[in-house]
Structures are given as C-alpha cells and as structure tokens.
Amino acid sequence: MRNNRSRVVPRLLTACCAIVVFLVPSSARxxxxxxxxxxxGAHHDVGNMSSYNSGFEIEPQTSCILGVSFKANLDFLxxxxxxxxAFPLTGGDVLENSDPTDPVEKYSISYTGxxxxxxxxxPVFDIGEFYLGGGIAYFLATGTVTHGGxxxxxxxxxxxFGFIAGMQLRLTAATRLYMEWEYIDARSGAxxxxxxxxxxxxxxxxxxxxxxxxxxxxxxxx
Length: 222
Description:
This protein is mostly beta strands and 222 residues long. It folds into 2 domains: 1-30; 32-220, Porin. 15% of the residues lie in helices and 62% in strands. The chain has an 8-stranded antiparallel beta barrel with strand order 1-3-4-6-7-8-9-10. The longest helix is centred in the first third of the chain and has 29 residues, at 2-30. The two termini are 48 Å apart. Mean pLDDT is 86; it is low at 1-6 and 12-31.
C-alpha cells in the first residue's frame, strides 16, 4: 500500500504541474486579442483650402471613408492600424477669391491613409471598452485642381501625427460595434503651381488635417 501511495503522489504532482504549465500560457493568451474590422466614415473639409489661402471663401469638399482596421489588445494597451480609402462625396469649390495671383476655382481630392496608433484601453464592465491614444499616419493623394480655366492632375504625399478616441460595444462573444474619432495633422510639400503669373516654383500643397468619424464592425479572431 505504501509503495502504491508513494507512486501515486508523485504522479498527481506531475499531472498538476503539467496542468498549471498548460493553463498559464492559455490564460496569458486569453488576454491578447486580435481583431479585424470594417468601417465607413466621413472627413469634412478635405484639403483645407481656406487654410492654404486665407483669400479663398470655399464650399469645402466632404469625403466618404471606407476602410479596414486591425486592433491588437494586450491588457490595458492597444495597437491600432489599418487602411482608409477616402473619395469625394462633394467636390470643393472656391466661391469667392480675393487673391487674383492664385486663381483656384475648384478641386477634387482622393486619398489613401495608413494610420498607426498606440494607446490605453479602459474596459467598461462586460459592455465593451473605451480607448484613447496617439500615433502617426501616412497619406497618398491624387486628384484634380482647376485654376484659371485649366484642370490639372495633382498627386501628393504626407506624414503626420494625431490622436484617436474610440469605443467598442459587445454584440456577441467575438464581435464588437466600434465608433472612432480621429484628428490628424498632416500637410504635403508644394506639388503644383497654380499662380496666375509665370513662375518656376510650386505653391499648392494638400492639407490632410482634419477630423474623421468612423463606424464599423470588428471581429476578434483570438
């Protein structure tokens, strides 16, 4: 009997240790979530032409945003990235221009944005979470600008920085409804000459700065 007990006890201890070793990584992995989401959104006053030239009184361009997002959570930290494609819903028009040296009449800008944010999660019971962070974003734009009766193609790129605030509401065990606000400050270098007088330098830049509102569904694969 004693020999049997002496054999059973080490086996039980070995089994318990094996269970602990197996469960610890599993519980650690349970704290790490990787989600992929799809969203729509809007960006008002694309191009910020009135900030580019204070002599412009404009009807600003409004763009629709379609995008995919990736969010990785580790305890109270998160990493958020993705791809956003923005295309015009309404083009921008210069209604009045008090600067005759820069006769821009209208513009239409489409862009692709690649954001990368890092921040902190704030869980809200079992309802969802609120998160807040900051980061960078890269933009690549194409479009047209009409000036002096001539329409020219334009392309520009910019790297900027900004902030994100969002919330997620639990729909099922694996899906969330998410809403995000982003503010990003980014301006390209001068990429085209729109001056009425002959000039050899470029003066027009694209300002991507602005507020973006996004609404989407995210699925957590793990």
